Structure prediction request, 473 residues.
Amino acid sequence: MHPLQLSATDAAALIRARRLSPVDLLDEVLAGVERTRSTLNAFVSVDVDVARAAARRAEASVMSGDPLGPLHGVPFSVKDLTLTRGLRTTMGSAVFADFVPDEDAVPVARLRAAGAVLFGKTTTPEFGHKPFTDSPVSGTTRNPWDLSRTPGGSSGGAAAAVAAGLGPVALGTDGGGSIRIPAACCGVLGLKPTLGRVPHIHAADAFGNNSYIGPITRTAADARLVLDVIEGPDPRDPYATALPLDSPAPGVLRVGWAARVGNKLLDSEVEALTEAAANRIAGNVQPVEVDFAGDEEQFLVLLQSSLAGRFGARLARERHRFDPSFVETVERGQRRTAAEVLAATQARSVLFRRVVALFERIDVLVTPTISAPAPIAGLDSFAPFAVGGGVGEAGRIRATWYPYTFPFNLTGHPAVSVPCGRTAAGLPVGLQLAGRWHSDRLLLAVAASVMGGEHKPAEWPPHAASLARSGRQ
Prediction:
């Protein structure tokens, strides 16, 4: 097996057994990043010298018989919205093009402490404001399954990198589906954890936070391993308290299947593949009625007003430096009233109680992750989004393409996207699993069953296969 095809779990085991050099593994990843710079364009920053020094230290520790962390010597990348000490964090914005943080986000620090080797930052749209990955800093990122298509967003660089074997683990962020959408587009696994399970100490609004940091991987075992490392309390995050970390395991799993959640449009191939995958899950699988259609407007109010509050003053001074679609988002937020924001906050509480009631009847809600496969790159996120290509079959992108994902950002419930097949055109399709608070490991166990085992990797895209044939075999 080519080193780029190794899972994090397998790579860590080989390193521990002195059968794989951390330096050699990192060099393979760095070479892959360089080979795909003009095609995938998944990275905005790569720190070769610092990463190689870390890999050399990791190798020296192995050879000296030192105690090793669970991810010792394993390369990982971080989405460019998440702070990384000493490594540029642009947030996809020309305004922050030269920003170098002096501290790590908590999950980054925990991965480093577990022995993992940080080597680069993956691309994101400006401040993660849209579901496609292009920005004034990095340009357009492509999908390894079809370079004419988007990898989704806003963790598009992270998902494209993992799908192409450019590191077995990436940290993404998810403010409305931004881990799960690109995971579905790129055929990998992406976990949005329970609110507070993975501390997010740099969230703009600690108490009203709906953004999460989580892993993108090619196996369920890797996602569980990363979660083991990055979860746990931190007093700087009000939700990251010492709560019980796992819901009790159910007896017979009660699975609720919902092809639609208030959306009218759903690609026929996506529906067939996701329904077939849902019916393969062991347990009592029953259809359920779920309607999130009325919650989109409240999500928009909170998103737009939050960005307006954070960046409105700066936009007034430096408008020309921002992505036009980000400008439009902020300006819409500036037109929101205080009454609208308070009403949206209260609606979030109502939605939370509805979802809690749903999970009194079922253990896992299963839906498509997105209603259609990855579209062509370069779409306008404010333009009507078409599903199935039919005339008139279009609507606002959030309600039309990813109505399944954003509600769980508002409620705090965990959700994972798992690959479940490909369309006739060869594009990946994602299945979303959501559950009650702190059922993260249950969801990963179900995800493993969908994939055929916790160590069974996601399919290898043709572009990634060409990478594997390059260099050492």
In short: The chain has two domains: 3-293+342-469, 294-341. The chain has 15 helices and 15 strands.
